[in-house]
Write a structure and sequence with these properties.
The structure holds two protein chains of two kinds. Chain A is α+β, with helices and mostly antiparallel strands. Chain A has twelve helices and seven strands. Classes of the chains: A alpha+beta, B mainly alpha. Chains A and B meet through helix 6, helix 7, helix 10 and helix 11 of A and helix 1 and helix 2 of B.
C-alpha cells in the first residue's frame, strides 16, 4: 500500500472515529443493561407467567379474542384498540389501546392479559430506569431526528471499522498476531490493545453496528411499506372513509379467515384499522414463518374490518425483512443467556476499543505524517 | 478466520435452537478466546 493510500485511510479512520466515538460510547453503555432486560424484568417482578397454552394458538381453554378485547376496553373507557399481540410460549397476550386509531405511541396504553382468564397479569412499567435507557439508546429523547442521527453515527462507526481493518494489515506486517507490547510506552500498550480487540471483534461490531443503522430506519421503512405494498393490497378501498371503531366486526371471525388463508403458521400480532400497520378499513393479522429461520419473516393477511372477508395476504418486502432480521442480530436475544453474556463481553471489547481510540487521539499529539510512517513501517514507533 | 467464526456464530442461533445455539456460542466465544490467548502468550 502506498504512503498516500495509508495517509488517506488513516484520515478516514481518525475523523470518522472522532465524530462518532462519544455517541458510540453512549450506545454501548446504555446497550449493556438492555441486553439483559428480560432478566432484569424477571428479577424486579415484571416477568410474565408462562404456564398454559400459547395465546397465539386456538387450543381449548383460551378465551375468544372478542372476549379478551372487551375486557381490555372495559379498563380503558372511551379508547379504541390499536394492537393485539400474542405469545408462543404461554397464555399471556397484550392489548394496546389509545384515544384514536392513529394516536402516537406516547398516547397508547398497553395491557397484559391472560387469555385463559381474561384477567390482567404482570405489570407494565411506564418510566423507570430501563425505559430511560431504552429511550436514550434509541433516539436520545429526540424522536425520529434523534434516531436518524444515531443511524448516521452508526455509519461513521462502520467507516471507522473498515478503515481500521485496512490499516491493520500494513501496521501488523512485522508484528505477530496478538502482540501486546505492555513494557513499552503507555501509548504503544493501548495501541496494541486497540488493534487486538478491534480485529477480533470486527465481525460482531460490524453486524451490530449495521443492524443498529437499519433499526434507526424503522419509521421510514414502515412508511414505505404503507405507501407501496399496503396501498397496492388495499387499492379497492382507496377513497373510502375510515371504518369507525363502532363498526369493527368480530376479531375471532377475522382471525379464522386469516388462518384459513395462511394455514399452519402462528399469528404474532393484529394491527387494527387506522394505525400505521394497517389500512383504515382492515384488520392486519401478521403471521410468523413456520421455521426457526423464517419465524421473523412476517406475512400480513388483510381482513375487511367490518365484513371479515379476506382482501389480500402477501409476504413483507425485502426491506421490511431486513428490519425484521436486524432486530435479533442487534439485540442478541435469540440464543439464550450464554449468547447474551457473549454479547455483553463483546460490548465490553467495543468500549475498550472506543476508549483506547479516544486516549490515543487525546494523548501526546504527533503530526499525521509520523502516524502514517508508523503504519508504513509495520508498527515500529517513529 | 476469527471473523468467519463470529459470522457463523451470529447466524447459527437464528436457524434453530439446541445444538445450533451451542454452535453460536462457540463461534462468538472465539474472539474472547483469542484475546485471552494473546494476553497470556503475546505480552512483551
Amino acid at each position: 500500500m502506498t504512503r498516500g493510500a495509508i495517509r488517506a485511510w488513516f484520515l478516514v479512520h481518525k475523523w470518522s472515529s472522532i465524530l462518532c466515538t462519544a455517541f458510540l460510547l453512549m450506545l454501548c453503555l446504555t446497550g449493556l443493561p438492555l441486553i439483559f432486560h428480560d432478566e432484569i424484568d424477571a428479577a424486579t417482578g415484571h416477568a410474565l407467567p408462562v404456564a398454559g397454552p400459547p395465546s397465539s394458538g386456538n387450543a381449548p381453554g383460551l378465551l375468544p379474542l372478542d372476549a379478551v378485547l372487551r375486557r381490555a376496553l372495559a379498563e380503558r373507557p372511551g379508547e379504541v384498540p390499536v394492537f393485539m399481540a400474542f405469545d408462543n410460549d404461554g397464555p399471556s397476550m397484550t392489548v394496546t389501546t389509545a384515544p384514536r386509531p392513529d394516536s402516537p405511541g406516547a398516547d397508547m396504553t398497553l395491557q397484559i392479559l391472560d387469555r385463559t382468564t381474561g384477567r390482567p397479569v404482570g405489570a407494565v412499567e411506564e418510566g423507570g430506569v430501563m425505559a430511560f435507557l431504552l429511550q436514550l439508546h434509541t433516539d436520545m429523547f429526540l424522536g425520529l431526528p434523534g434516531m436518524l442521527f444515531l443511524g448516521a453515527m452508526g455509519l461513521l462507526f462502520f467507516a471507522a471499522i473498515v478503515s481500521g481493518v485496512v490499516l491493520y494489515a500494513p501496521f501488523m506486517r512485522k508484528l505477530d498476531f496478538g502482540t501486546l507490547r505492555v513494557s513499552r510506552s503507555r501509548r504503544v500498550k493501548w495501541l496494541d490493545h486497540h488493534n487486538l480487540l478491534g480485529i477480533v471483534a470486527v465481525a460482531w461490531m460490524s453486524v451490530v453496528g449495521l443492524t443498529g443503522v437499519v433499526n434507526t430506519l424503522a419509521t421510514p421503512i414502515l412508511k414505505l411499506w404503507q405507501a407501496r405494498e399496503l396501498a397496492d393490497m388495499t387499492r379497492a378501498y382507496a377513497g373510502r372513509p375510515a371504518l369507525p371503531p363502532t363498526r369493527y366486526g368480530s376479531l375471532d371471525r377475522a382471525m379464522a379467515t386469516a388462518r384459513a388463508a395462511l394455514p399452519g403458521v402462528r399469528p404474532q400480532f393484529i394491527a387494527f384499522p387506522g394505525g400505521s400497520y394497517s389500512s383504515r378499513h382492515h384488520y392486519a393479522v401478521f403471521f410468523q414463518g413456520d421455521t426457526p429461520l423464517t419465524e421473523r419473516a412476517l406475512t400480513p393477511a388483510l381482513i375487511d374490518g367490518e365484513t371479515g372477508a379476506l382482501t389480500d395476504a402477501r409476504p413483507m418486502p425485502w426491506y421490511a425483512l431486513a428490519l425484521s432480521y436486524s432486530q435479533p442480530l442487534h439485540f442478541g436475544d435469540y440464543g439464550g443467556l450464554p449468547l447474551k453474556l457473549l454479547w455483553a463481553a463483546l460490548t465490553g471489547f467495543t468500549i475498550v476499543v472506543l476508549g483506547s481510540g479516544l486516549y490515543l487521539w487525546l494523548g501526546k499529539r504527533r503530526p499525521t505524517d509520523a502516524r502514517v510512517r508508523e503504519i508504513e513501517r509495520g508498527g515500529v514507533a517513529a | 478466520m476469527i471473523g468467519a467464526a463470529s459470522l457463523f456464530g451470529l447466524v447459527a442461533a437464528l436457524t434453530g435452537d439446541g445444538w445450533r445455539d451451542v454452535l453460536s456460542w462457540a463461534g462468538l466465544a472465539i474472539p474472547l478466546a483469542a484475546t485471552g490467548w494473546a494476553m497470556r502468550a503475546k505480552r512483551y
